[in-house]
Amino acid sequence: MAQETSYPRRFKFKDIQKKWTKFWQDEKIYSFDINRKDQMFSIDTPPPFVSGELHMGHILNHSWIDFVARYNKLKGKNVYFPQGFDCHGLPVELAVEKKYG
Fold first, then answer.
1. 80 is in which domain, residue-wise?
2. What's one GO MF term for it (predicted)?
3. Can you give the three-state secondary structure of the chain, one letter per residue?
4. Is residue 60 one of the residues assigned to a domain?
5. Model confidence, pTM
6. Looking at the domain assignment, is residue 58 inside a domain?
7. pLDDT tens series, the chain, 101 aa
8. Does 15 fall in a domain?
């Protein structure tokens, strides 16, 4: 026999996403205050780089850094964690030329 709970039977992903996105924006969870000097934590990582077929190493390489940044943000530190993708297009262009001519 199923136990009664206060949880809904179906999880409403879109509603939950809207709720937490609004909270993060209202609380400025991902903001960095350049004028705040206490508890500053900075991670300067190289951008992801195209290197052949995707594999777990691509995920692992950035996941642990993301974990450390988020952990420090949750501890109340002013975290500077710029993210981006910049490989000047050349590796992508070469991979396309190699595969498709």
1. 37-100
2. valine-tRNA ligase activity
3. CCCCCCCCCCCCHHHHHHHHHHHHHHHCCCCCCCCCCCCEEECCCCCCCCCCCCCHHHHHHHHHHHHHHHHHHHCCCEEECCCCCCCCCHHHHHHHHHHHC
4. yes
5. 0.57
6. yes
7. 667 888 778 888 999 999 999 998 998 888 888 898 888 888 877 666 666 677 788 788 788 888 999 899 889 899 998 876 666 667 777 888 888 88
8. no
